[in-house]
Amino acid sequence: MKRRASLVSLALALVAPALALAGGGPPGGQHTLDWPFYGNDLGGMRYQNVDQITPTNVAHLTPAWIFHTTVMNKETSFEAQPIEVAGTLYIASPHDHVFALDATTGALKWTYNPIDMPPLFRLALCCGQTSRGVAVGAGRVFVARMDAVLVALDAATGRVEWETRVADWHKKYAENMAPQVVAGMVLMGSSGGEYQKRGFLAAYDAATGRQLWRIHTTLPGASWAGASWQRGGGNIWVTPEVDPQLGLIYAHTGNASPDINGSRRAGDNLYTDALLAVDLRTGAVRWHFQEVHHDIWDYDTAQPAQLYTLVKNGQSIPVIGHANKDGFYFILDRRTGQPVYPVREAPVPTKPEWQHPAPTQPESTIVLIPQAVESTPPGLTAAPLFTPPQEQPLLEQPGAEISGPEWTPGAYSPRTRYAYIPAGGYSPWLYHATPTEVNSYGSTGSPPAVPGLKSYGLFDAVDTTTGRIAWQTRVPDVTISGAVVAGDLVFWGLDDGTFLAQDAGTGRILWRYHSHLAGVGGANGSSAAYVVGGREYVVMAFGGSSHVRGDTGMTASPLGDALIAFALPREGQSAARVVTAQPVQVPLGAPAAVSGVARPPAGSTVIELKTHDLIYDPHSFTVRAAARVAVHVMDDGLLPASFAVNLPTGAIGLAQPLNPGQETYLAFTAPQRPGAYEFFDAIQGDKGYAPAGIMRVVQR
Known about the structure:
The protein is mainly beta and about 700 residues long. Strands 39-45-44-47-48-42 form a six-stranded mixed beta sheet, with no helix packed on it. A five-stranded mixed beta sheet has the order 1-31-32-33-34, with no helix packed on it. The radius of gyration is 24 Å and the shape is globular. The relative contact order is 0.13.
């Protein structure tokens, strides 16, 4: 294995600790200014101290180059964070390819093709096919693949140096987070909360891939009923922040599992929905702050945090700022986990008792979005925030997904002392749960399933010196886009593919970009700003989000594969350079489409199967080997549904989804070999929000 760091990475390693929480170099006249980490600095401020592009000239910003990954289908999301080091930009595709590009031209230097991954449809992918990016350090590029394998690549050539399995994809673990690299270690969590997988945080030797330590995020004790902690979720699927001076990692944990049904996991369910301060060397938890107790709404800590210095009442306090999906923004002293602005334990509804709801919930004085239904459509019942899901469908704001602050990172500017939060917005959901149906998610309905509801998006600037909203921008669709601050400008995007620049101090929109070019989709990625050769670039992924498309049913996040670098015009450059990659495509293994029939074929074994509350009823059935089978699929729920089954020859599934109230038959021949074969709902191309079950095949 290669153990010698390049001169570039060695230089980076020497300067990184000093710049880790400073956010760049001095303004004006920079020849080179990198974006070396997921959040630019280890504290995730996503701030670049640069002033070539300013409020007075940003209107002239234009594409300098466009790179097409050629990796896209209806299930992909282009959410990867670009990383730029010493003139090379590294970007991951939604299928875990890694591309090394010339940061000034977009020219392709090398490609990593993950050719040994299993077909993607065999993986338990919660939220579509995506990667949130790579990490770069010690002369290597690190990518966490969807099949839960961590890969180290030579940064100069793309050659594989080592691989290590973080978790077992057969057990429904997956990876889509960007790793974090610090102090010779690679930090990793995993996805899997929607499958009742126990969360963890692990550190690996960056040179060898050897695991150094691993901690779990659910622990036996009074906060969990019985052994429910063993399948309690709390997965860490967002890149953590690091304070090297304090020696602390700041990890954000996911929702408790099962998501919407808490009947079998009484207690606060520590450490789910929490900020964890973890010792960098040992993995020991120093402190925790739980943002939601006994979560039964999917209000996890999805958005990355920012570490910054807060000046309040003349005192400088090292803090961590974090936005929860419930719409509260918390600012804590990152040394102790104590709130800097008031947080009260507010009484909340506690019925029905079978949900074991917590009697109080943490409420910050900083509120980012509406937390109540503004207008209730006829025939529906609205409920206050933190009302437990129950047998009666209840409309609540915010909803479980694409409603409050999501995975897209915010930013912080030391100039304005504002935190910039892509806050989601207003998008109530219809919650429904029953005590007898304990599945991975529960039953919820988003606005398209609730006629008469209209959503909108919000982007907030929080004055951290006062704890108040300084300005707020309202847009037509819920805000799902990463932000970056470059000098006096803040950049972020819209679902429809519009990319914006605003005055960071006032919120005035100074520049818009929208393209109808092929392959330029929704602006749902994470941007970056860097300087190479004396020229400042702002780069953004335009690939849309399958999560947005699947959860909202809107066409506002069009599919794409483009990475665009913007810069001020340069004499002699008339048009953007376009570069198109030709990677080896990862096999999908999607079910072969089979048309449903109105009646079962003669002589078939008929299986009656209802789908509702995001489960199949029954959860399993038995047929004889080689028998002709007709599954009678009936959608008795609130949302569209489908049916697919894994067979030895490949998966097959209904060609068209069922709408609520519809039914059809899927006819096929059972396998000749006895065994257990999974069936599942393939309507969204992932199994995270879908029912699944087992077809048992026995001998004749």
